[in-house]
Amino acid sequence: MERLDKVLSNLGYGTRKELKQIIKKGYVKVNNIIVKDNGLQIDPEKDIIHVNDEEVIYREFIYLMMNKPDGVISATFDNRDETVIDLLCYEHQVFEPFPVGRLDKDTVGLLLLTNDGDLNHKLISPKWHVDKVYYAEINMPIDEADIKAFKDGVILDDGYKCMEAELEIIENLQDSARVKVTVQEGKYHQVKRMFESRGKKVVYLKRTNFGNLALDESLEEGEYRELTQEELDILYSNWE
Ligand code: URA
Question: Which residue numbers delimit the RNA-binding S4 domain (predicted)?
Answer without folding.
Answer: 2-62
